[in-house]
Design brief:
Strand order of the largest sheet: 3-14-5-10-11-12-7-8
Largest sheet: 8 strands, antiparallel
Number of helices: 1
Helix content: under 10%
Radius of gyration: 19 Å
Structural class: mainly beta
Strand content: over 45%
Low-confidence stretches: 1-21
Distance between the termini: 31 Å
Number of strands: 14
Length: about 210
């Protein structure tokens, strides 16, 4: 492996470790804006939403999700019947890092109570979000090859939460799979209870 000197720092030469000729791109599909919304749903073929074999990976980006009811999780579920039912069986795991504004408490925790084991319930993809005016959650969820009729449907999410009632930050990781070989053609987001007061969720296809 060759080493190149640049500003007195040693860096690996790109040609030594291989060159990526094409990284792919994010293609905008649909942006939903919450306004006291019970749900935000992305349904293939509805309202210009594409969620089929056009892309092998889909990315949902959450920006400043603010709940009407304090200390509630943002959740998601999948549908294999174009949104008639959001009840795909899932097995998941969740952990999070946390730190208090005071600096007096911090750590990493495996969240056993947040896991699903062959459950059709919604999956929590954030910690508890406060509803003070400055509180919200932002992050993303990757859904891989949802149109496959061979494989289970893997997903990975990461979100950051400001829980204003106790002034904590949470770095929340959730991952798992929808245990179905049917094509997933709709995804829905909602609060664990109460409405999504404000915020946006944007869907991209990944080439």
């Amino acid at each position: 492996m060759s080493i190149v000197k640049l500003n007195n720092r040693a860096v690996r030469s790109a040609t030594a470790v291989g060159t990526t000729t094409q990284l792919g791109s994010m293609v905008f599909i649909k942006k939903l804006t919450a306004s006291s919304s019970a749900t935000l749903s992305f349904v293939d073929g509805s309202s210009d939403v594409v969620l089929d074999n056009t892309y092998k990976e889909y990315l949902f980006v959450f920006k400043n999700i603010h709940p009407e009811t304090t200390n509630k999780n943002l959740t998601f579920n999948m549908s294999a019947d174009t949104g008639s039912n959001y009840n795909v069986t899932k097995t998941t795991s969740v952990f999070f890092g946390y730190h208090a504004e005071s600096g007096g408490d911090a750590g990493v925790q495996y969240a056993t109570a947040e896991d699903l084991a062959q459950s059709t319930a919604v999956q929590n993809i954030t910690g508890l979000i406060g509803n003070d005016n400055d509180a919200s959650a932002s992050g993303f969820l990757h859904l891989f090859n949802p149109s496959s009729t061979t494989f289970v449907k893997h997903f990975i999410s990461r979100t950051h939460v400001y829980r204003s009632s106790v002034n904590y930050n949470y770095d929340w990781f959730a991952a798992g799979y929808g245990n179905t070989t049917s094509a997933v053609d709709a995804v829905q987001f909602k609060m664990a209870s109460g409405n999504i007061d404000s915020g946006t969720i944007t869907l991209y296809g990944i080439n």
